[in-house]
Amino acid sequence: MKVSKILTFFLLCSLAAFAQETTVGDRVIQNAKDKTYQRGEQKSDETVDKALNKVEEGINGIFKKKDKKKKNETEEVSQESENTSSETQSTPQSNDKSPQKPVKKNSKFDFEPGQKQLGFDDFSTTNVGDFPLGWNTNSSAEIVTIDDSGQKWLFMSKDGYFQPEFINDMPDNFTLEFEIFTKYRSNNILEYQFYLMPSANPKKDLSNEYPSDYFQFQWMGCEKAASYFVVENGETISKNEGIVVKDLTCQNQDYSEPIIAKFSIWRQNSRLRIYVNENKVLDIPQAFDAKKKYNVFKIGSKYMNYSNGRENDDEFMISNIRYAVAGEDTRSKLITEGRFVTNGILFDVNSDNIKPESGVVLKEIATTLQENPTVKVKIIGHTDSDGDANANLALSQKRAVAVKNALASFYGIDLSRLETDGKGESQPLNNNASSSEKAQNRRVEFIKL
Questions:
Q1: Using one digit for the tens of pLDDT, what is the confidence trace for 331-385?
Q2: Are strands 102-104 and 116-121 parallel, antiparallel or unpaired?
Q3: Does position 38 have pLDDT exceeding 80, yes or no?
Q4: Distance between CA atoms of residues 354 and 179, nearest Å
């Protein structure tokens, strides 16, 4: 009788612990970004493990230990959360118990949206059920809303391409941002894609899958597999068919949850960067042909709606398209051309005090130097012609030194890589005849040594 009561007591304790563990596992997954909470739950998980082990030993293995695979999955989620929350991690100790060496993971979201907006469409002026003005297609679509959010989406329900006509005459430096909604339910091949391309006749080329010149990015429905192609004069000059984009992967095995992600595209002359959410997936230095004028963006899908009923149809939508002029590519100018001149580093009047709004340009210069650790530069200050020439010469030299010190102090650039000089008003770009001309002459120049 006493033995039976003991067994019953252990059984109830074990079931309670296991129930607690299941709840913990769910909460770990739901709160994967909360590192402090994670560690507490992981500790609780380990305590449950020990309790179950003791139960096994005490009553000859009547109760089975919890599934190890589940425990490992929970620990992986916990570890991933800690990697996200902390920049510095430690490597495992080796057998000789040598001191741990910290491993620093350097990653950043360096996308900078263009400031001068050229076009925007959130479909707020288009009625639900209509096709938006200013768009062209060789397929069909309509404006819809999702649940009670109020956000409007262009629902592209059939294979084909959709082209916003306000994205044309693309400048050498631009950004293009948009959100996509995908729901993959047909269990068949499904492919999404968009193009950036030059075209003499955009309407004619709208339905052309293989024009003579284009950049194409494509990804598979509910999969992390993606690829890109750069084609010039009908020849593929660059491609990668093995790109992995985790943000485009369905989280549920039954594909029941949709994917909502933001694409950010950044062109700077020939260079192209593409981000999905806050992760950079492409950075191609030679993606655009400098001799061609790009004027088309089109997006669409292939193999949509290969299913037997409406409830299993695939879904593809786009919203919040923003198109803007971007800044020049500092890296390209400085590294490939050996010289970069900017009016974006500003100073107080008659002073070497750098204004806060200069931070964007300084950060880009610093990033370029960080990515190219062997490069040394000379920083040269220039002024307009107002005031005494000797005073302007001294001021330009002080301003160059101020930029040098800012790069070293705030961004960790080694001072040995930075030289300075000042030219005062001796090398004007114009006649200093107006305030705008004088502003052009007040500049900072970076020369690769």
A1: 677 888 899 888 889 899 899 999 987 887 898 899 889 989 999 999 999 999 9
A2: unpaired
A3: no
A4: 37
- Rg for the chain, CA atoms, rounded: 29
Closest C-alpha among 423, 448, 171, 416 to residue 333: 448
Q: Are 323 and 174 in contact (CB under 8 A)?
A: yes
Structure tokens at 202: 């955009």
- The token pair at 340 is 């970069």
Query: pTM, whole model, 2 decimals?
Result: 0.57
Are 132 and 121 in contact, with CB atoms under 8 Å apart?
yes
Give the separation between CA 119 and CA 252, rounded to whole angstroms.
Answer: 36
Specify which residues 275 forms β-bridges with.
264, 280
Residue 319 has pLDDT above 60, yes or no: yes
Locate 288 and state its tokens: 């655009």
What's the CA gap between 423 and 421, in Å, rounded? 7
From CA 397, how far away is CA 392, in angstroms rounded? 9
**Hey, what amino acid is at 131?**
F
Report the C-alpha gap between 375 and 396 in whole angstroms: 23
Tell me which amino acid residue 15 is.
Answer: L
CA dihedral 248, 252, 255, 257 (to 10 degrees): -80
CA–CA distances in Å: residue 138 to residues 157, 160, 197, 202, 213: 12, 6, 17, 12, 20
Q: Tally Cβ neighbours within 10 Å of residue 23.
A: 12
- Residue 28 to residues 47, 71, 226, 294: CA-CA distances in angstroms? 15, 11, 30, 47
186-243: pLDDT as tens digits: 777 889 999 999 999 999 999 999 999 999 999 998 888 999 999 999 999 999 999 9
Q: What SS3 string covers 20-81?
A: HHHHHHHHHHHCCCCHHHHHHHHHHHHHHHHHHHHHHHHCCCCCCCCCHHHHHHHHHHHHHH
